[in-house]
Amino acid sequence: MSKTAAIIGGGVIGGGWAARFLLNGWNVSVYDPDPQAQRKIAEVLSNARRSLPGLTDVALPLEGTLTFCDTIAQAVAGAVWIQESVPERLDIKHATLAQIQAACDADAFIGSSTSGFKPTELQRGALRPEQIMVAHPFNPVYLLPLVEVVATNMVIDRVASAKAILSSLGMYPLHLKKEIDAHVADRLLEAVWREALWLVKDGIATTEEIDDAIRYGFGIRWAQMGLFETYRVAGGEAGMKHFMAQFGPALKWPWTKLMDVPDFNDALVDLIAGQSDAQSGMHAIRDLERIRDNNLVSMLRALKAQDWGAGALINAQEAAMRAGTVHGAVAADLDPAQLVETAHRTVPLDWTDYNGHMTESRYLQAFADATDRFMTIIGCDAAYIKTGGSYFTAETHIRHIDEVHAGALITIRTRVVLGEGKKMHLFHEMHEGDRLLATGEHFLLHVSLETRKPTAPVPQIEAALMRIAAGHAQLPLPAGIGRAIGAPR
Ligand SMILES: NC(=O)C1=CN([C@@H]2O[C@H](COP(=O)(O)OP(=O)(O)OC[C@H]3O[C@@H](n4cnc5c(N)ncnc54)[C@H](O)[C@@H]3O)[C@@H](O)[C@H]2O)C=CC1
Ligand SMILES: C[N+](C)(C)CC(=O)CC(=O)[O-]
């Protein structure tokens, strides 16, 4: 049975949390007194549905159920995880946490999205202080994995369980062992924000020029290596020590305004808001969110291909999702009389083109991934390939039968047309539900990676392949098999 998360406060951040839980199969109960909350959450959810499920190359669990509640007590009843995301005011947080604790299970986890308060501040006057922790996420919560966990007073086993829940949602819980105002990431962001406000106030740069300084340069570096690893590389062959020797003295030069904060008066607000309107006012906020999400998905999937940073996290989540399902199965587990399910995934945002549908090269990618999966099933996995044997594709024929869009759930089933000796002939069928979208027919040869010449696979692989081929030979022939371009259907 699905677990339930309660979201108390369903604004920008609460809406993002609701989407993160729902799309990972949890039921979600929301309490928010704003009469517009349902509409706002529906809009956040629709952005999340088009972006999050396509991050992984396997499908997320079935979406949970969303319920709006009239009281906090109703929302938290039976919830395993309760996430408080009310406005950043300690009096509102205290009043809300008191209502939550009066009604929730004593062993439920209570996370606060607070950007700056320490857990001991949140816990002041609480019924069960040790139940409350900071779980500080980053916007958009449904796409960005980082969540800072600060759990002063909580026993270590509970912290481990809380982190395990967040990890199961595809998040990266960064456990801060000491509490501090604004945690770690917001301390860093505040420093940049402070400097940026000075630069605008002093007329040195506009909001757009500051954004350009970030997005054309160090912002791209930060997304993949952060600060210290980037500077280590910047030190050249001599590394970090050389970097520090060269740039350390600059810390004493007047490069920064350090801790000074410009007066946050109407003039400054109008200056910044006016420049921001000139820079971005032509886009509605939801449009900007979609532009942001398209870019984030493309960047995260690029990091996934490198198995690096936030991309490596997605690969780890994917491996956990495959375990124990047909997508982690090997040949011996499968009924040879059935086609083999080699993909069940959502079409990612970065697979679509100027025609608004999945672009042709991605059909080949989907089929190639399905072939890789089939190779693993018969034993030609990463460990085997390291021993010097693999399959090379010699010929491919793709039929594009119907269009498909980002966010669609697609399934590929694979038929072995021929499997003996060094030859492997596969026929993949891609469906969305009952709708046939495409077929991919591929002829592969087993090769020695040393000689780069065709050679027979090890007997276990050949036996697994022949067993499935014999089963599939009993099935009726699908339409389109063996077809060449221009031949009658
Ligand atoms: N916006 C951001 O970039 C981030 C914000 N946060 C933190 O998340 C929390 C929420 O911030 P946002 O979502 O940005 O604010 P928001 O203003 O978008 O949402 C707050 C929501 O709380 C609701 N609310 C007000 N009083 C309530 C109550 N007594 N009970 C239940 N709901 C109530 C409001 O109707 C509103 O929908 C804050 O603690 C903030 O520091 C954390 C990470 C990023
Ligand atoms: C501006 N902010 C302090 C609310 C930002 C955050 O808390 C995290 C984020 O998403 O940048």
Characterization of this structure:
This protein is of the alpha/beta class and 489 residues long. The protein has three domains: 4-181, Rossmann fold (3-Layer(aba) Sandwich), CATH 3.40.50; 186-282, N-(1-d-carboxylethyl)-l-norvaline Dehydrogenase, domain 2 (Orthogonal Bundle); 324-472, Thiol Ester Dehydrase, Chain A, CATH 3.10.129. The protein is 42% helix and 19% strand. The chain is built from 16 helices and 13 strands. It has helices spanning 12-23, 37-51, 72-76, 90-103, 119-123, 156-168, 185-201, 207-225, 228-234, 239-247, 266-280, 285-306, 310-322, 360-377, 382-386, 459-472; strands at residues 4-8, 27-31, 66-68, 81-84, 109-112, 132-137, 146-150, 172-175, 340-346, 389-400, 409-420, 423-432, 435-448. The strands form two sheets. Strands 3-2-1-4-5-6-7-8 form an eight-stranded mixed beta sheet, sandwiched between helices. The protein has a five-stranded antiparallel beta sheet with strand order 9-11-12-13-10. Strand 12 and strand 13 form a beta hairpin. Helix 2 (37-51) runs parallel beside helix 12 and helix 12 packs across helix 13 (310-322). It is globular. The two termini are 47 Å apart. The model has no long low-confidence stretch (mean pLDDT 94). The chain binds 1,4-dihydronicotinamide adenine dinucleotide and the ligand C[N+](C)(C)CC(=O)CC(=O)[O-].
